[in-house]
Amino acid sequence: MKFSRRGLIALVAFAALQTSAQAAEEVNVYSYRQPELINPLFEQFTKETGIAVKTVFAEKGLIERMEQEGALSPADLLMTADVGRLVIAADKGLAQPVELPEILDKIPPALRDTGNLWFGLTMRARVIYVSRDRVTQDTFTYEEMADPKWKGKICSRPGNHPYNLGLIAAVISHKGEAAAKEWLAGWKANLAIKPSGGDRDQAKGVFAGECDLAISNTYYMGKMLTNEKETEQKDWAKATRIVFPSSPEIGTHVNISGMLLAKNAPHKDNALKLMTFLASDEAQQLYANGNFEYPVNPAVPASEIVQSWGKFTPDTLNVAEIAKLEKIASKLVDEVQFND
Question: What global pTM score does this model have?
Answer without folding.
Answer: 0.84
